[in-house]
UniProtKB/TrEMBL annotation:
Keyword DNA-binding listed: no
Species per Swiss-Prot/TrEMBL record: Bodo saltans (Flagellated protozoan)
NCBIfam families: Grx4 family monothiol glutaredoxin
GO molecular function: iron-sulfur cluster binding; metal ion binding
Biased composition (Basic and acidic residues): 49-59
GO cellular component: mitochondrial matrix
Protein name: Glutaredoxin-like protein, putative
Region (Disordered) residue spans: 41-61
Domain Glutaredoxin: 92-156
Keywords of the record: Iron, Iron-sulfur, Metal-binding
Domain of life: Eukaryota
């Protein structure tokens, strides 16, 4: 049984998208050539955008109020709390890129295959749902890569460590220690 938890992440995806156009345009202008010269035809750095029918709404100027910044902070804190609660409350948690049915990365697919071979019930969490998810999970585990496997509130490892542990039977030992039902062989 798999459950995908991304309810808080979905709240932020549209808010994060509203910030990208101006950031991207700024990066584009700043890296336009190797000499650092910004051509005179480049729009002013203030992001002067025409608000006309030809300009997509995502690229039109918006007023940002302090309340929207506060709500973004609150939403980010909600994501972090959801991650901590998931790790604490669920027996087996896989932080991966994509979903178990559709992994976006080969390493995530390998770890899903191991968990499926062991017949494990686990909760998966798509780290691509929002950048906060990916960075916060790495911060919690002090591990630089995704996917990451957690068992009973303890970080087990990334794909290479988990594969070696499963092949040697050590991963099954961790599951046994926590009385988590699984198959013995992968």
């Amino acid at each position: 049984m798999r459950r995908v938890l991304s309810r808080h992440c979905a709240l932020l995806s549209s808010a994060a998208a509203t910030c990208r156009p101006s950031t991207f345009a700024s990066q584009l202008r700043c890296s336009s050539n190797s000499s650092g010269f910004i051509p005179p035809t480049a729009p002013p750095l203030g992001g002067d955008v025409n608000k006309d029918a030809d300009t997509h709404p995502d690229f039109q100027p918006r007023i940002v109020s302090s309340s929207s910044v506060d709500s973004s902070y609150d939403e980010i804190e909600a994501i972090k709390k959801d991650i901590r609660d998931t790790i604490k409350d669920e027996e087996v948690v896989l932080f991966m890129k994509g979903l178990p049915e559709a992994p976006v990365c080969g390493f995530s697919k390998k770890l899903v295959d191991v968990l499926e071979a062991l017949g494990l019930e686990y909760t998966s969490f798509d780290v691509l749902a929002h950048p906060v998810v990916r960075t916060y999970v790495k911060e919690l585990s002090d591990w630089p890569t995704i996917p990451q496997l957690w068992v009973k509130n303890e970080f087990v490892g990334g794909v290479d460590i988990c594969l070696k542990m499963a092949e040697s039977g050590e991963l099954q030992g961790v599951l046994d220690k926590h009385h988590i039902k699984h198959r013995n062989k992968i």
